[in-house]
Amino acid sequence: MNVLHDLDPQERTLEDVSDCVSDSDEYFGDNFYDDWDNRAINGIADLQTVKFKELTADQIRRLPFPDRSVAFSFYNLYAKMNGFSARKSQIRRNVNNDVTQQAFVCFRQGFRDLCSDNDAARRKREPKPTTRCGCGTEMRVHIHEETGRWIVSYFQEEHNHEMLDDMLTFMLPGHRKMNSAAIDQMNMMLKVGIKTPQIYSSFVHTAGRFHNVPFLKIDMYNQIDKQRRLIGGDAKACLKYLESTAAESPGIQLDYHLFGDVVAFDATYRKNKYMCPLVVFSGVNHHNQTIVFASALVANENEATYTWLLEQFLDAMKGNKPRCVITDGHGAMKKAIETVFAGAYHRLCAWHLIRNATSNLSNPTFTSEFKKCMLFDYEVSEFEEKWENLVSSLGLHDNEWVCDLYARRKMWATAHMRGHFFGGFRTTSRCEGLHSMLGKFVHSRHNLRDFVEQFFRCISQMRSREAQSDLQSIVGDLVLQSPLHDLERSAANMLTREIFLLFRPMLSRACTLKIRSCTYTPTFEIYTLSRSGSLHKEWRVSHYPNEEIYKCSCMRMESLGIPCDHVVAVLVHLDATKLPKSLILDRWSKNARSRVHAFMDNGPFCWDSMVTCRNWMLSDLCRELCLLGSAGDAEFSELRDKFQNEISPQDDCYRPDWTDVEYTSFFWDGDGGSDNFDMEIPYRTGARILLQIAQRNNLDVDVHLALGFASHYGKLGTTEYLVEEENAIAFVFRKI
């Protein structure tokens, strides 16, 4: 007794075909088995020698195949050479539930189940064009019980539609497929931030022409989407990825230990696909480069959320609070900082202030003068005078935003923040540069896992840049340019190159200063200096000889960590030949990381995956071999045969376990009784159709996909599964 599982109610059943009879010997005639072995297709490799365009229907009817998969591969290649594509249709089983017959049809066979006019009116999208037109082209194969081979029992080659040109046939879904090598290459490019269109262009360039690539750009998007869906819950996948990168966290904590005296919080960067703002905790390293200590995706931006966020950050950094913090001025963030980071000096980011000034007033004159008031190193009295002149000239005394800005002047004016160390973290270039770098990796369309993964790529590039700067600071000596060669050489030997270039102008400016007077006390000396030709402005430098400490009234050393020209002038007066250690901050020195080298055996960056590294090394070797093998036909054939001979045994030896397959799932075997319901479903059946099938047959709708291997059997816990056909998707449902 045969059991038929019909997947499409509109498809005709095998019993309706009058040409099919049960006695195959009577149907095929006495001479069917003559020369049986010579004309047989014994595997996929034999398909390379078949001239599909010259095949006749009678020749096809006489071909035996080793299994159904080879038969379908043959028919699909035949379809490709004749302007259409094939798909699998109905199967027939015997009483033992073994497949005994399989039908392959034209991709335009059958008709679409059109929705009613009312349903069509409610559609938000335009319906896809109808491709099915009831084409009757079909090839049916059934198993020969004596030999176990599959033979053609029915073949119909007449179509009711036009055939496609060869240049168009390859674009049909049935002829498009991304193999595992293409998927791996695509994923590696995606991980380094290359966009999908550029990846597809790379495949086209490698293949020579776009029709030499066996898939389209849409297939890459579909593959990416499938990977995201099958990888599991987005939040769980994100947490799993973070756990896998936990080994890198000590490096971030060490960065904070060295350079965490100044921390900037920026929550103005773009949001991800869940509309969650990205909060970045950043600082500045010994090369005056922006580094990132931590980041967070927050659901909202209220005080409670920011308080929790800062507490978690403080806990991750072993309770070490920063001395100074910089924010975008968000009110909730300000209150949270006062609660969690009590005692830290709070500064408003200059970039955000300038942007707000432009949006609130739209007055270029105000914006230009406001920059000077905020960034120039004025005395407090000078600042107040210039601010009053600016507000009066533009008539902004009654402007609410300007009044609120002035009330917060101690949080943004350099004149009022003198003496608080911010490491130069005030200019607009830092936020703009960080946003620009993040924009190369992080996009709003990313889900949680992709968002976090790409953010780590950005961090990795930042650390790579730091390593390059370390090399530049150590290798090579800068040409001395100032008149004070000894002091310049001393600074160049101790400071990193970027910081030294900020200090070097102080040497030339010191030559324009004169010491007007000197006052001596038992413990320190006070030098009064002024600029040559400008006696109205004076600076006072205090020198403590016992500790070799220098303090200037300009407080540049306390604010930036770089000696000012006034201190340098005093050093010249004292005939000093090198900078004292008190004027060299550890965070600006070349040896800034020397205290923690024991914990950084892997350097500032490391490989993400040893498997990926091996893959690239083998790919480079194979690329050279391929160049040699493509020089001529003989070389090509020889190398191709060697590759095929090597791939087969390696594939059998290193085939991954079922639980290690990239797209893995489990499917039910019920309770092992007679209530099991079993059906095979075409590979491209959509999730909506699967749900309809499950509901129609009263099946559990908890359905999972599984990509199977040939005759693969496995067991996971109490769940058993069997997949009979390579690259087939099998489903086993459990009866409700």
Question: What does this protein structure show overall?
Answer:
With 736 residues, the chain is α+β, with helices and mostly antiparallel strands. It has six domains: 3-175, no CATH class; 180-230, no CATH class; 239-465, no CATH class; 485-599, no CATH class; 610-654; 658-733, no CATH class. The chain is built from 26 helices and 19 strands. It has a six-stranded antiparallel sheet with strand order 1-3-4-5-6-2. Strand 8 and strand 9 (290-297) form a beta hairpin. GO terms for molecular function: zinc ion binding.
| Count of distinct strands | 19
Question: Mind summarizing the main beta sheet?
Answer: 6 strands, antiparallel
Structural class: alpha+beta
**Number of helices, where a helix is a run of at least 4 consecutive DSSP H or I residues:** 26
Q: What share of the residues does DSSP label as strand, in percent?
A: 15-25%
Number of domains: 6
* Low-pLDDT stretches: 1-27, 598-610, 652-690, 700-736
The radius of gyration is: 37 Å
Trace the largest sheet across and list its strands: 1-3-4-5-6-2
Mean of pLDDT? 77
Report helical residue fraction: 40-55%
How far apart, in Å, are the first and last alpha carbons?
Answer: 26 Å
Global morphology:
elongated
Task: Provide key terms for this protein.
single chain, 40% helix, disordered N terminus, 736 residues, disordered C terminus, Protein FAR1-RELATED SEQUENCE 5-like, 19 strands, FAR1_DNA_bnd_dom, zinc-finger, zinc, alpha+beta
